[in-house]
Structure formats: C-alpha cells, structure tokens
Amino acid sequence: MTTTKFRLAYIVLLASCMNSGLATAAQFDHAKHIDTVSMLPAAVLTAVESAHPEGVIVHVYHDQHGPRYGRSEYYVNIVSGEQVHNMGLTAAGVVLKDSLDNRTERIAQLPDAVRAAARAVFTDAVIFGAGSRNNIFQVNVLADGLPYDLEVTRSGEVLSKKRKQG
User: Fold this and answer.
1) Which of 1, 41, 32 is nearest to 14 (CA)?
2) Packing angle between helix 4-18 and helix 42-51, nearest 10 degrees?
3) Looking at residues 101-111, what average pLDDT do you find?
C-alpha cells in the first residue's frame, strides 16, 4: 500500500525534476518523468518501500526502452535521513541498482546552522539537494509535499525562500 509520505513527496519531486532540465528526458521520447506515484507498478513501489521504509521519493523516471538495452526501466531517487539513494528497478520490482547519489555528499557538507535554518523554516523539511556559491548555500527542500529552494548564509540567515513551480 502506498504511504501518504510517498505520494506527497513524489508529486513535489516531479514538479522540481521537470524543471531541472535533465537532458535525458528532453533527448529521448521514450524516457519520461512519471507524474504520480499511482502510475508506478505496485511491484516497483513495494520494492522501494521495502528497501527504504523511512524514505521519501523525490524523483521517478521511466525509461521505456531500458530493459531492451540491459538498463533499468524505472529510476527512483529516495531521501532517507540525509542520504539520497538512486534505485534502478525492473517493472516487476527487481532491484538492479541501489546506491548513494552524489547529492548525499553535498548535503553532508552543509553547515549545521544551514540545516537548522531549513528546519526552522519548515519543521518537516526533507533536504534533497544542496550547493553553495560565495558562502551562500542553496538548499532544495521538500516540505508538505512541495519543493522549495532556500538561500541561506553560513551563519543560518535565510536570504530567500522560493516555491519551485511545476
């Protein structure tokens, strides 16, 4: 059974990922983002929930021709704690890949004050991406099923909060 956490997080994730300019989605008409978790095969969702029971789905991608070329058919990004996992699965829910995403390292490098600021703005914040430029940290947050971008100083001052549009 699909949990509310998975449904809400996925809707938010989809909106943010569709605006991310992923080249693979734009280049291949057989590859697409899925617009709702309910469109995932039950076996895929069950496998994701089994592997990461406390995780939040932040991105799902469907490669219709993946199996033909020995690739996964479904790619799912899950945030569990402050780790971002990439899973590659078949439509039958067989896990072909489950590894840490490189975003995990960037999230781990966030100063404590920046994390605290994100959680002060959103008590239920799930941080799913981070970066920095000139000591200003860009933090991608999922809150109440919606994606937000925060800009935060090293000392924890929130400079901006923007809702990502889908």
Assistant:
1) 32
2) 100
3) 91
Q: 92 pLDDT exceeds 90?
A: yes
Q: What domain count does the chain have?
A: 2
Which domain range does residue 45 map to? Answer: 4-101
- Tokens representing residue 30 in the block: 């057989």
Both 35 and 92 in one domain: the answer is: yes
Beta bridge mates, 79: 56, 84
**Cα–Cα–Cα angle for 24, 3, 149, rounded to 5 degrees:** 50
CATH number of the domain bearing residue 17:
3.30.505
User: What does pTM read for this prediction?
Assistant: 0.68
pLDDT in the model for residue 166: 54
SS3 153: strand
- CA–CA dist 61, 14 (Å, integer): 9
Dist. CA 31–CA 28, nearest whole Å: 5
